[in-house]
Specification:
93 residues; five-stranded antiparallel β-sheet; Jelly Rolls; three-stranded antiparallel β-sheet; mainly beta
Length: 93
C-alpha cells in the first residue's frame, strides 16, 4: 500500500466509530489489525495528529487535522495518535 488508495466506486458508508482521542483509543487500534474482508476504512483526523502505519512495509503516514487515509480490506496496520488527537474511522462496503 505504498501509494495511498482511494475508495472504490460503488462502496457505501456503513458506520462511523465514536470519536477517539489518545486516551480513549481502543488498544486494538494501537497494534497490528486489519479491516474485515470486503470492508474499507477511512481514518479521518479531526484535530491534532495521527500517524497511520502500514505493518508490512513499515511506511508511516503522518496525518493532521482535516486529512484522511483510506484503508483497504485485510491490510495490516496500526495507528499512533498524538497527545492532542481526535479522530474517527468510517467503514464502507
Amino acid at each position: 500500500m505504498s501509494t495511498l488508495p482511494h475508495l472504490p466506486e460503488g462502496v457505501e458508508w456503513v458506520r462511523t466509530t465514536p470519536e477517539f482521542t489518545a486516551s480513549t483509543v481502543p488498544a486494538g487500534l494501537l497494534r497490528a489489525h486489519r479491516v474485515a474482508p470486503g470492508a474499507w476504512g477511512v481514518l479521518r483526523v479531526l484535530e491534532g495528529t495521527v500517524t497511520f502505519v502500514e505493518e508490512e512495509s513499515g511506511v508511516a503516514h503522518p496525518l493532521t487535522a482535516g486529512e484522511s487515509v483510506v484503508i483497504p480490506p485485510e491490510v495490516p496496520h496500526h495507528v499512533e495518535p498524538g497527545p492532542d488527537a481526535r479522530f474517527v474511522v468510517e467503514f464502507h462496503r
